[in-house]
User: Fold this.
Amino acid sequence: GVLRAEVGAQAGASAAVRRRGVTKVRGALGRDTAAMLREFVLEERERSLADARRDPFVLNDRFSSVQTPRAASGAGVTRWDMRLPLDPPVCQALRELLSGGE
Assistant:
């Protein structure tokens, strides 16, 4: 039943992370939290890139090396591992993820 499906989904997500290093977990965050976090991340990325243009050493403080920054050979960079500050939007999303949305 439901428990078997849930265990199967968790095993599938685990296998995907082992294989690709990342996976999508549908419904992990509520829509409002996801939208708020997305907006924060995009703003933080722009701020960090602007700071790095002024001081290139900032780049290493804000971004980690990415194993696969492009979706395909010759494609543009579409992936960044950005270190997010533990500001309220990040903390709220973490609380929601870790509590199962409760």
